[in-house]
Design goal:
The complex is a heterodimer of chains A (235) and B (247). Chain A has a single domain (32-227), classed as MetI-like fold. Helices cover 77% and strands 2% of the residues of chain A. Chain A has helices at 9-17, 33-68, 72-84, 87-98, 102-126, 130-138, 143-173, 186-190, 192-225, 228-234, and strands at residues 20-21, 29-30. Chain A has a two-stranded antiparallel sheet with strand order 1-2. In chain A, helix 5 packs across helix 7 (143-173) and helix 6 crosses helix 7 (143-173). Chain B has 247 residues and is mostly helical. Helices cover 74% and strands 0% of the residues of chain B. The chains are: A mainly alpha (235), B mainly alpha (247). Chains A and B meet through helix 3, helix 4, helix 7 and helix 9 of A and helix 5, helix 6, helix 7, helix 10 and helix 12 of B.
């Protein structure tokens, strides 16, 4: 076990806020607030785009399958297979076979977010009391309205659980996006020979803070989206 | 079609592995756009043995440690309701911090290598196992506990002979999720030099060699599927009353 001589938390924080002489390539200035902010924003951009793609694909599919009560094996299978996909392999394959850049990395990250959203939406909709759905149908609501106005709102806590799971996977995997040519915060981590050990630790700190902030925001969003009636039930 | 640009790039980062490949006689292994090269795979499959064993060791150690800690926390918090929200929040933070960042956050303390990998992966599994155990225990009907108490069972007996057996499906469900995700995430331990199948994806030259990435990915996913089935079988065997009810 070798502990790094240069890496320290104070060094890492200095790296985030002020450019420093690289301790690897002498003379170059690396890090600093502007660079850090640029990478944070890029990281966030990739994450949000990927999450949006995953949501657009998986939410309607999960709603439909759950509403029809079909494809349980499909949903469960996708769930397990989705969790088993090694993130590193996805990024590496996409980079070498399809190409580098935001246009390929964002859809690749979205693939990793599909499973949690699909499975949770499916399960959430299936858990809706069938009497409630019958009542809605009896009131003359169309099937589409039942999905949108009855099943989705009632399934929101479960659906948001899936969205949060997807966000965690995507924001984590965006860290290795520099392998596919997208400069996220992972750049500090992967290009150790440019940023040095302080940069490495700074990257780790910023990625962790970004992930926790994103998760916190989604938890708040979940609270806003959940109807008051459901909140009472969970107490 | 081999892209000359990619091959040059691979040559620069690649060590002996890439040179060995490019000097081979088979054409497909030198092409980075070729998804899978059977001939190379057949000849080189034995190089995946050691990384697979390393991968397995890291996953098993992490999940066992994670399970012991999370299960202990869940039992401790089971009868102390006020501890449940803070424990859920604490394990949630450990779950949310991306593993790759967590590795390097521990670097000044535990350094490069397998110890760091196992600590991070075990910390990741805590939330999944803890939450499911608490959920399983909470789902035991109060009437069942009352009946057990009426039969003269002590609190300890009720926990081990009534509540825990009834919570097995949820506990194993959590374990399945934890094991499958940990097997996938353990590919990232290559970044802190802890070995595993990630070396066959990110190691010298591999990043531009799809065949190696595909093989490593297949082993990882196969391992995950295998463990999932083993745990599912275990769940069936330990909860025979569920099958009776279904019949």
């Amino acid at each position: 076990m070798t502990t790094l001589p240069f890496a320290s938390f104070t060094g890492a924080f200095e790296f985030i806020f002020a450019p420093q002489d690289s301790n690897v390539t002498g003379g170059n200035q690396v890090g600093g607030f502007e660079k850090s902010l640029e990478l944070v924003l890029k990281h966030l951009e990739v994450t949000v785009i990927a999450l949006a793609i995953a949501l657009i694909v998986a939410l309607p599919l999960g709603l439909y399958l759950g509403h029809r009560g079909r494809g349980e094996l499909f949903a469960v299978g996708i769930g397990t297979a989705g969790r088993a996909i090694p993130e590193l392999a996805v990024i590496a394959l996409v980079a070498v076979l399809i190409g580098v850049g935001l246009k390929t990395v964002a859809p690749a990250l979205a693939i990793l977010g599909l499973a949690p959203i699909l499975v949770n939406t499916y399960v959430g909709v299936r858990q809706v009391d069938s009497a409630t759905v019958e009542a809605a149908r009896g009131m003359g609501m169309s099937e589409l309205d039942i999905m949108r106005k009855v099943e989705l709102p009632l399934a929101i806590p479960t659906v948001m659980g899936g969205v949060r799971g997807a966000a965690i996977v995507i924001v984590a995997t965006a860290t290795i996006a520099p392998l596919a040519g997208v400069e996220t915060l992972g750049d500090f981590i992967i290009n150790r020979n440019v940023y040095g050990e302080n940069g490495l630790l700074a990257g780790a700190i910023l990625v962790a803070l970004l992930a926790l902030t994103l998760e916190g925001s989604l938890a708040l969003l979940q609270r806003r989206l959940t109807s008051d009636g459901l909140k009472l039930k969970t107490v | 079609m081999a892209s000359p640009l990619l091959l040059t790039a691979a040559g620069e980062v690649g060590g002996d592995f890439f040179r060995e490949r490019s000097s081979g006689t088979l054409p497909c292994q030198a092409q980075s756009s070729h998804l899978f090269c059977w001939d190379w795979a057949k000849e080189n499959i034995d190089r995946y043995g050691t990384p697979t064993v390393q991968h397995l060791e890291i996953v098993l150690l992490s999940v066992v440690i994670g399970f012991v800690v999370a299960f202990g926390l869940a039992l401790f918090a089971h009868r102390r309701r006020q501890l449940q929200p803070p424990l859920l929040a604490a394990t949630g933070i450990l779950y949310t911090i991306p593993s790759i960042a967590f590795f390097f956050l521990l670097l000044p303390i535990t350094g490069f290598g397998r110890d760091t990998a196992i600590i991070v992966l075990a910390a990741y599994t805590l939330q999944i196992i803890y939450r499911n155990t608490i959920l399983g225990l909470a789902n035991v009907p109060a009437s069942v506990k009352d009946a057990a108490r009426g039969m003269g069972l002590t609190n300890r007996q009720i926990l081990w002979q009534v509540e825990l057996p009834l919570a097995i499906p949820e506990i194993i469900a959590g374990l399945r999720v934890a094991v499958v995700s940990t097997i996938a995430i353990a590919t990232l331990v290559v970044f802190i030099n802890a070995g595993g199948l990630g070396t066959q994806i990110y190691g010298s030259g591999n990043l531009t060699f799809p065949t190696s990435i595909v093989i490593a990915m297949a082993i990882v996913m196969g391992m995950a599927l295998l463990f999932d089935l083993v745990l599912l079988t275990l769940q069936r065997l330990t909860t025979p009353w569920r099958r009776v009810r279904q019949a």
